[in-house]
Amino acid sequence: MIKKLLLSFAIVALTFFSIYSSLAHGAGTRLTPEADSKVLTMPSVISIEFDGKLQTLGTEKINLITVTDSSGQVISDGISLVEGAKLSTKISILDSTGLISVQYRIVSEDGHPVEGDYSFTVSEVPTLTSVGTEEPGVNWQSNGLKEESNGLSLAGLLTVVILASAAFVVIRRKYRKVN
How far is 106 from 147, CA to CA, in rounded Å? Predict the structure, then answer.
């Protein structure tokens, strides 16, 4: 009976860890310029840093970043550079102003594709949006970035943990009644 109990616990543990590892979809940690920010001039490079290395497949373009102006014209140079966990592109039209959109698609180190987008504004009149920020990037979760992924939510993960714990308790009680 102990073998059955240990086997049941191992199955629950493996299920929990496989679900937990599926949550590791390349989450972004920093972007430059920040989402919803206002900048005086167009930066020459747009970059996004993720929480893990990005996958690469030789010369295939599986990680892409595209920047467009308010009229929908692509203003990035078409080359997406991957450096470990950082994806960047150079801007080819530096005199663009107005709402600038950044779209990206990456393949995270666990093999899952992640797509998202954000925007910022280039204006001739500077607007103070935050005080005391010296770094050009910002924490991803606090900037309104839209990220699409097929990962489970924290509530889903908690549900699995609670169900696994309940199953363990039930199995353990049955074992105690038998002995």
Answer: 11
